[in-house]
Amino acid sequence: xxxxxxxxxxxxxxxxxxxxxxxxxxxxxxxxxxxxxxxxxxxxxxxxxxxxxxxxxxxxxxxxxxxxxxxxxxxxxxxxxxxxxxxxxxxxxxxxxxxxxxxxxxxxxxxxxxxxxxxxx
Length: 121
Description:
Layout: E1 3-7, E2 10-12, E3 18-25, E4 33-39, E5 46-51, E6 57-59, E7 67-72, E8 77-82, E9 91-98, E10 111-112, E11 116-120
Parallel strand pairs: 2-11
Antiparallel strand pairs: 1-3, 3-8, 4-5, 4-9, 5-6, 7-8, 9-10, 9-11
């Protein structure tokens, strides 16, 4: 079975940093587009950052210049370095794996982790 397990969330003051990690198992990791999504209470799940099989990255506009997504195919790890955090970044963060192209639509991703909470005050 495919498993994605996020870690690294927590509470931080505005302007601070966090690094999220996602450990993947049960899939040929290097073949998947990997994405980070987030969902705040009462809001829809939104795409944050994506990295394709070749390492090309894309970001939603609100995090450009502050967040960096990376992947380690040998260890099947996905990371999200988050700097200059703002209160509006507060949300549950999920990693996701998709077999197609990296797109913002959550429906394109077939495997999801359970999430890690990020709170910025």
